[in-house]
Write a structure and sequence with these properties.
This protein has 466 residues and is an alpha+beta fold. The protein is built from 19 helices and eleven strands.
């Protein structure tokens, strides 16, 4: 017959398994146990403690040796906590401190229980040590982040205020005090609209506060009021945020726009001055070319009126229209380099003489390229006699090689030239001029510009200025 299993053997194996499992769990949790005998100063510790603190693997050192491993800055604190617990009749203590190891500093939390004799004298102290290095590193990183964000908040050059969802001030920065005149202690708990919104704009302020309280982001310009009653233009940016405890709040930034508005006004006046200077320059150049060629006096101005109207009819922005108009005003500027007798001679020119007249496009480019203007006038003037099929001059450009402004001026130039008197022929009718561009639309002249021109005359009663 077989022998029956020994119950003690099973019990011993179960105990060993439980101890092994406990050690494994302690290793995973980075926690271990320890025991200290005050009489002998013997400090015993488990394998996880040896692993955590880089202690000798035999599990035994003196408490004095252990204390020597505590970070110098924490050593007196640890001794003080332990001493107070031992002498004060307490049952235990908890201490957080740093321990020096071969691989650096380890943050631990130690918990101890005190066993006392009947006379109250401590006989044994035992407890646990847990590695909290990762947690402390996360806390320190979080604290650095908090400090960084707090620094950004406090040192922002713009006024910043945090309110709850009803607009009651929770926190302000130094710039808020500088801008509005309220110390933080004066502002906290007050409604932001009561503090900074002028009475006549109070409804506006309440609307903004309501929107922000519902989670809407805002970016606005308005007028706000200081503590002393003075008002100033400002820009406000409000962003819904979550406050501590999960409550919805608002982070709002105010910027004084006084200096910016002054700068804007100065810039506007400077631009107006520059624009007047550009216009005067272009007017002077236009007048110069018309003096040289009296038969075309007013031609450039009439072309400019029609070309700008065509550009506008085509839907181009006003900045583009302005460039077309300015270029058209000086498109024949280069004729000042053409002999006057050729410009005013009745009858046809010889091929050589006609080539001399054609030089005016390049001459205009050469003159205008020396003047810095906000439009590409030099190149537009250079191209105003080019044609879509390459039959124009002086470079024989085709299609998209020709600037849109030059393609528009070409249409206006043809209409005005045909319908005006020239030394070598009398004026033809406007109907003849419109028939010519209608026939050339999409061939030598841009079709959309031709269609816009026809609409102006046939549907919108355009007429050349007198």
């Amino acid at each position: 017959m077989g022998q029956s299993p020994d119950p003690d053997t099973h019990l011993t194996q179960a105990t060993m398994d439980s101890q092994a499992l406990l050690l494994e769990v302690q290793q995973l949790a980075r926690v271990g146990s320890w025991s200290w005998d005050p009489a002998s100063d013997s400090f015993l510790y488990s394998c996880p403690v040896a692993s955590i603190l880089d202690l000798p693997p035999d599990g035994r050192i003196s408490m004095q040796e252990y204390i020597a491993r505590v970070h110098p800055e924490d050593r007196q604190k640890v001794l003080g906590i332990r001493s107070q617990a031992l002498s004060g009749g307490e049952d235990g203590y908890t201490a957080e401190y740093r321990v020096l190891g071969r691989n650096g500093v380890v943050h631990v939390v130690a918990r101890g229980r005190i066993e006392r004799g009947t006379d109250g004298v401590p006989r044994r102290v035992y407890g646990s040590i847990q590695d909290i290095t990762e947690r402390k590193q996360m806390e320190e990183a979080l604290e650095r982040e908090r400090s960084y964000l707090a620094g950004l908040f406090e040192n922002s050059p713009d006024a910043v205020v945090v309110t709850d969802d009803r607009g009651r001030v929770q926190k302000t920065n130094r710039a808020f005090t500088r801008l509005f005149g309220y110390e933080e202690k004066e502002a906290v708990g007050q409604r932001i609209d009561d503090l900074v919104v002028p009475d006549r704009l109070y409804a506006e302020g309440l609307g903004y506060t309501s929107d922000l309280g519902r989670g809407v982001c805002l970016d606005f310009e308005s007028i706000r009021r200081r503590k002393d009653g003075s008002e100033f233009p400002c820009r406000g940016v409000g962003v819904p945020v979550r406050l501590s405890g999960g409550q919805l709040g608002v982070y709002c930034i105010y910027r004084d726009l006084t200096a910016e508005k002054v700068a804007r006004e100065q810039l506007r006046k400077a631009l107006e001055t520059m624009e007047r200077a550009w216009e005067q320059t272009i007017e002077a150049l236009a007048s110069t070319s018309e003096v040289k060629d009296p038969y075309t006096a007013g031609h450039q101005r009439r072309v400019a009126a029609l070309a700008s109207a065509i550009a506008r009819e085509m839907g181009h922005p006003e900045s583009f229209v302005a460039g077309v108009e300015k270029a058209a005003l000086v498109h024949d500027l280069g004729k000042i380099e053409v002999p006057a007798e050729l410009l005013s001679r009745p009858g046809r020119l010889s091929p050589f003489e006609f080539r001399l007249v054609q030089v005016h496009a390049e001459a205009g480019f050469r003159i205008l390229s020396k003047i810095h203007l906000p439009w590409p006038l030099a190149e537009i003037v250079y191209q105003h006699h080019e044609r879509l099929d390459g039959s124009g001059y002086p470079r024989g450009l085709k299609g998209e090689e020709i600037l849109p402004e030059a393609r528009i001026i070409a249409v206006a130039d043809v209409v005005e030239a045909i319908s005006s008197h020239r030394p070598y022929r009398p004026a033809r009718s406007l109907e003849d001029a419109l028939a010519t561009i209608r026939e050339q639309g999409g061939k030598t002249l841009e079709l959309e510009a031709v269609r816009a021109c026809l609409r102006l005359f046939e549907e919108k009663a355009f007429s050349f200025p007198a």
